[in-house]
Write a structure and sequence with these properties.
The structure is a single chain. This protein is flat. 55% of the residues lie in helices and 7% in strands. The relative contact order is 0.10. It contains 21 helices and six strands. The strands form two sheets. The chain has a four-stranded parallel sheet, with helices on both faces. A two-stranded antiparallel sheet has the order 3-4. Strand 3 and strand 4 form a beta hairpin. It folds into two domains: 127 residues, no CATH class; 230 residues, Rossmann fold (3-Layer(aba) Sandwich), CATH 3.40.50. With 433 residues, the protein is an alpha/beta fold.
Length: 433
């Protein structure tokens, strides 16, 4: 039986509850420990229906209501106005769903998109599941639109004629097979560094040769790749590069180009790379480069992750060490990971021992904005994380053959300014996008 829009909303709300519950509980507990006065929390504590029920077990309606009514006291410090708008919007969709009101496909798409964005903002893994539902719905909408157009064409006996000698665009440009058939998925057209790092996604982004075959190398991208080659092979190039553009400005695509450049694939198989090596005066790339990928909205500071070898990682520096050298490298920072303290110069030692290394950090602000001033999260406090940021950039500068690339969203100006101000100004090299 086909899934209805009501069914989709029900499943999305279940996933929202699962992803939002731990985050809301964590933030409320933090506010209570600080002694903050939160009337909304007290009101729920006095409610006989929910006072004995742990917050992670609340339904989506209660979680959203608590977030809305205690926003200024609890959630304003970690989430922004956009997320508050999402909370209000999703509450409206939830109320409509509870009253069995009909949902159009467009309304359902909007609701799923809003749920995905809110879950992504709190680094909940359930965001991926809701995102897949959204993309499947969009494919169905597109299929229906294609069938409708075909029916209209079949019922129309008039054939338009092209004036002059101009050919129809379909005879000049052939769409990709999945686009022409109407069975494409929009997610495949969006670069996702974390997905590629996990070995997932479409060939266009996942396979190095295919990625470079489809990528137009702009001058700024060529300069970025050239500097990276000089840094990891020779003794030139900037050790730290900051990528800062508006949304859709190519930060993730630039990072993917670096990721695939040092994948071990022969340069001759990567279109345009031979010319970059020649310009950098380098004859070959390293046989092996340790690639570290840290994506801020895919790693939660409140939920430790368990690696395939059983290693439990709590902090961003623990994740970095594990990706650099597995359990052996992680042992060097285990104590700092468990205590959520910055590892200091150990980072430089790891970069030298397990280098050459390429460290890509995307959406760092998204991770940092979830941290508290108090050390009550496994990921550490904001101050400790800032100390780690300083230690990391200094280690990358002093280490041999290590390149650190960081992306900062120009659109999140308030948090970016706060992050830069804590570092005493622009701290991460020149912009190269």
């Amino acid at each position: 039986m086909a899934m209805t829009n009501q069914d989709r909303l029900a499943k999305a709300l279940d996933l929202l509850r699962a992803g939002l519950g731990p985050f809301v509980d964590r933030e409320v507990q933090s506010a209570v420990k600080k002694g903050l006065s939160v009337p909304a929390v007290q009101a729920f504590a006095d409610d006989l229906m929910v006072r004995d029920k742990p917050i992670p077990q609340w339904d989506a309606a209660l979680l959203l209501k608590l977030m809305w009514e205690s926003w200024n006291e609890v959630f304003r410090a970690t989430l922004g106005p956009a997320e508050r708008g999402l909370v209000g919007e999703i509450r409206g969709y939830r109320n409509r769903w509870a009253h069995q009101e009909p949902f159009t496909s467009d309304d359902t798409d909007r609701a799923l998109d809003s749920v995905t964005r809110l879950l992504t903002a709190v680094s909940a893994p359930e965001a991926d599941d809701v995102g897949k539902m959204k993309m499947e719905l969009r494919r169905l909408i597109f299929d229906e639109q294609m069938r409708s157009e075909k029916r209209k064409s079949a019922g129309t006996a008039i054939e338009s004629q092209v004036t002059g000698s101009l050919k129809p665009w379909r005879e000049v440009v052939n769409p990709h097979r999945d686009v022409a058939s109407g069975r494409y998925q929009q997610a495949e057209f969006a670069a996702d560094l974390w997905q590629v790092h996990l070995g997932e996604g479409s060939d266009e982004y996942r396979k190095p040769a295919e990625f470079f075959r489809r990528t137009y190398l702009t001058e700024s991208l060529k300069n970025l790749l050239k500097g990276a080659v000089q840094r990891l092979v020779a003794n030139g190039g900037d050790p730290v590069v900051q990528l800062q553009t508006n949304f859709g400005g190519g930060k993730t695509h630039s990072m993917l180009a670096l990721y695939h450049l040092f994948s071990g694939t022969a340069p001759g198989d990567l279109l345009g790379v031979d010319a970059i090596l020649a310009e950098a005066e380098v004859t070959k790339l390293p046989d092996s480069v340790r690639r570290v990928v840290l994506v801020g909205n895919k790693i939660s500071p409140g939920n430790p992750s368990v690696k395939p070898d059983g290693t439990v990682v709590r902090t961003l520096w623990g994740e970095l060490a594990w990706q650099l050298g597995g359990a052996k490298a992680f042992e060097r920072v285990r104590a700092d990971d468990e205590r959520a303290t910055s590892p200091g110069d150990t980072l430089r030692e790891l970069m030298n021992e397990f280098g050459p290394s390429l460290i890509l950090i995307d959406e760092w602000v998204a991770y940092a904005r979830q941290l508290h001033d108090e050390a009550d999260l496994p990921g550490g406090s904001f101050e400790t994380h800032f100390t780690f940021a300083q230690a990391l950039t200094e280690a990358a500068k002093l280490a041999n053959h290590c390149l650190l690339v960081i992306s900062l969203p120009a659109s999140d100006k308030a948090m970016t300014r706060r992050w830069a101000a804590r570092a005493g100004g622009p701290h991460w090299g020149a912009c190269a996008t």
